[in-house]
Amino acid sequence: MSSFFDGIPAVRYAGPDSGETFVYRHYNPDEVVLGKRLEDHLRFAIAYWHSFAWPGGDPFGGQTFERPWFGDTMDHARLKADVAFEMFGLLGVPYFCFHDADVRPEGESFAENQRNLDAMVDYFAGKMEQTGTKLLWGTANLFSHRRFMAGAATNPDPDVFAWSAATIKSCMDATHKLGGENYVLWGGREGYETLLNTDLSRESEQAGRMLAKVVDYKHRIGFKGTILIEPKPQEPTKHQYDYDVATVYGFLKRFGLENEVKVNIEQGHAILAGHSFEHELALAASLGIFGSIDMNRNDYQSGWDTDQFPNSVPEIALAYYEVLKAGGFTTGGTNFDAKLRRQSLDPEDLILGHAGAMDVCARGLKAAAAMLEDGTLEEMRQTRYAKWDSPEAKTMLASDDLATIHARVEASDLRPSPVSGKQERLENLVNRFV
Ligand code: XLS
Ligand code: NI
Ligand code: NI
């Protein structure tokens, strides 16, 4: 045991009336909602990078956090892992997620990176065995090191493509070995800073070829998890190719990978793309590519990815409503891609950030389940489209050509009569549950 969290008790469910600080008021993992335990609905995961690797810097200032595991040796990496697994235990969170660069020191060469990662994977395997914590997903950091400044798969230099492909292989192997349930690709540098030096045709072709190699390798090693692309419109690049769910779907179709790859949708990225979180979730579900969630919240004024812990139950309820409507998570889950504010220096801040977010998610999911059980929303949605059930409407959609439709409309003196969309009534209805 490290002494980092000394004095902080394990956070456990104490009910909504508890006045304690280190408790869940709404997240009772064993509570059954729609026939399933809350823990199995929400499938919470902690992001290694924000909680254990991020030093608290922003564009105007450097490190604010002082952590005993900050440093570039394998001893530091092991201490970081010890503290991370202690935190997973204190919070009772079933999953975690990591990038290679979060967990191992940066070596002098690719081979040294590989050795460092292998050693940490073995260390993780032991900890996972001891604690029962599982891996929701692994991923490669192809954006921090300066070699990736002009992209990874989309780099003008094939040497960087090679380095990236090799790194993805290492990270897929690591994820597979640790029983990871998904593998994520977030293309932080897959985009451009200026069109003046960018060949869009080449870069998208390179991205498509890399993704095809990832899918091929997944099948080659028998990885049963889901490959997930995480859309984001910009930041750090001026423009990121995986802009949003719709863009990713078009890209997948173009390379014939729409049945092989799904999406990991992040709240903050949806907001940056000018969408609501529920829009991205609903669209992914309707396209059959909904996979997983990076849960956080974006500051609505900042224009950048603030990765704050979520705190709005009504917003979260609408998001989980889409998740539940889509049938819930299969291999996916709720990964807190969220970080402390840089003034939140204390160990307890890490615990309370997550605990509060888990309570908010639990409330949101329960509200969403109640809306589904009530059924009025779905009933009203169906009623709105009910006329499409008629045989004439079905034939028109399936086979009538424009001339046939024209003849019918002209002969029957058709006069469409507008119907209320009932938005206010629907919004009032939602308010009863959140
Ligand atoms: C950054 C992304 C990143 C991915 C994993 O904005 O959210 O953290 O989730 O590479
Ligand atoms: Ni993310
Ligand atoms: Ni993000």
What is the spatial order of strands in the main beta sheet? Answer: 5-6-7-8-10-12-13-14
Bound compounds, each kind once, are: D-xylose, nickel (II) ion
The portion of residues forming beta strands comes to 5-15%
Determine the number of helices (DSSP H or I, runs of at least 4 residues): 16
Mean pLDDT: 98
Q: The biggest beta sheet, please?
A: 8 strands, parallel, barrel
Number-wise, the strands total 14
CATH T-level topology of the largest domain: TIM Barrel
Q: What best-fitting shape do the alpha-carbon axes yield?
A: globular
The N- and C-terminal alpha carbons lie at a distance of: 41 Å
Uncertain segments are: none
Helix percent reads 40-55%
Question: Which second-level CATH architecture of the largest domain applies?
Answer: Alpha-Beta Barrel
Using only C-alpha atoms, the radius of gyration works out to 24 Å
Order of helices and strands: EEEEHEHHEHHEHEEHEEHEHHEHEHHHHH
Would you state the CATH class of the largest domain? Alpha Beta
Q: Could you name the CATH homologous superfamily of the largest domain?
A: Divalent-metal-dependent TIM barrel enzymes
Structural class of the secondary structure composition? alpha/beta
Short recap of the structure:
The protein is α/β, with parallel strands linked by helices. It is built from 16 helices and 14 strands. The chain has helices spanning 38-42, 48-53, 74-91, 100-103, 110-131, 158-177, 200-221, 245-254, 267-272, 277-287, 313-325, 347-374, 376-384, 391-398, 402-412, 423-433; strands at 12-13, 23-24, 32-33, 36-37, 44-47, 95-99, 134-139, 182-185, 191-192, 226-229, 239-240, 261-266, 290-295, 334-336.
